[in-house]
């Protein structure tokens, strides 16, 4: 049964009812948690129930459902554009330089990831509030606030439409134009490539000081990789970047993933789905047999693959791993750890191991002394040997210095919390958080990069007990506070880059202004010195001062700001270098437990899918001469019929309902703005009519005999009209104020 609104509603409704009932019968345990708000509690459990239900459908079903169209509200303006081919060529050239010869070999070739499949053109959308568009049109003013947004979705699902209500909120809060490009269905490593041309296109339209980058989850991880590529290639960097719960460590090597969390909706064991043509791909054993046999028969020949028949262990093929408990366990790296992309001797995997897929086998020593060799691909985004590549897991970049100012928000209750906290400190103090030496030996052998760049300014906000990507629950109180904080940083970064003040949008019911003693010049030199909690600001409010290139804040669910615990007390920052980028045996145990049960349930389906993919694999690559795209990529499909065709756009009534609920506040604010514009226009007309009725000078001379009282009344009327023209039609419609000095405070 396909993933439809009806089946989702049937599965989610019991969760809604049980959550509502539990919320009122067990209030005590929720008293100090964000789930004390019933709207947040309901939203969290609805997403959790949806992901649980989606697991019983194929990857294609989930991709199709989340790619369905959500109509644009009447108060939002959308414009679709096509990215010209020249920017794709420029981006390909820069990414090829960034990868280098070895990187190109590891990803499987220099051209397959430039292919767009059924999506012949790279499309993007401009999203903005109609009221802002009309205001700029009246004054013939160009917009100097651009947010380039990269949405998340675990690198394999989601679309502009699933995030439309969030993009609208960002546009309204910052009075900005949002630019977001569309994805192809089956993402793989092509996602990162297709994001770079969109930014290069923006640079042809706007100065980099007018551009902000932003991304959530997987999109946040891609933004970091894009920024590093721009930095290393000498391309203009944007004014700043906003990372919302960025996923930056695909090896899952930090403690928070191991500990788990009941306050998050991400499955602790990772994403599982019903087997299909898209997932899972043939495992490492099958690919090794096929590719080794092909190389032995006719080196370099594509058609010879069809003559090779892999020898399959059915149990290993079903589960995707094997277990050894004998006295001579398989060789592992020191400490029994496994490092994707490295051999047991901690040297980089060889070209032969990569080309035969032997490098995709990960051998881990478990706590009980057994040794497990994982043969299935772990993450849907990239093969196992690429999980540690710095463009896939930016936490392993040699340095995150030299980037524009960053805002990093993380939920205190989310699984990925630790890697996000580590990312912030690594950017602000690059020399103190270096990758493991074997990783550095491959990506910065002469240690040039780690000493090349200055620290990056970072604002880190850890929100108490909140889940992954809180703006997803945009109707809740914590999400509203986070949107304000995002707009505050965005306006500050744009103002700093443009060296001019940013207009403050008018106050809203959910956007209390910060008092002077909570931020700005009167703030203490460091956030840690603050005695009283402040409140998150809004667009135009100044930021607190940076201390050692950081603003470190803990924020509660009401938006109150407190000092973040010192670095020495944060588990994320106590993780040894040799454990970052290493596969954690405890996380493997959790993943394998769920995977074994899942694969047994769908054993026959999985075997059939893999058998079918192997047969297709033998037919040779489709359209890529001598290249070897990862088998998880759409580019690796072998037959024309397997290339996903364009399908007719469908409306998603489930996402329409979700978006309608999530954008209720924006709709109310847009209606209020529209009414205010009507009142302002009516006031202008009244003022114009009064001006026309004002007597001429000759008429005034003829009426010199009027009484003093009459003249005083007439003059009073003129004065009132002039005052109304000067001050505006109504209280609250005054012109917006200007921000304080936007330049960041230096620690010196």
Features:
10% strand, disordered C terminus, eleven-stranded mixed β-sheet, alpha/beta, three-stranded antiparallel β-sheet, globular, 14 strands, 748 residues
Describe this structure in words.
It contains 21 helices and 14 strands. It is of the alpha/beta class and 748 residues long. Among the domains are: 1-66, no CATH class; 284-379 and 579-618, no CATH class. The strands form 2 sheets. It has an 11-stranded mixed sheet with strand order 1-2-4-3-5-6-10-11-13-14-12, sandwiched between helices. The protein has a 3-stranded antiparallel sheet with strand order 7-9-8. Strand 13 (550-555) and strand 14 (560-563) form a beta hairpin. Helix 1 crosses helix 2 and helix 4 packs antiparallel against helix 7. The longest helix is centred in the last third of the chain and has 30 residues, at 664-693.
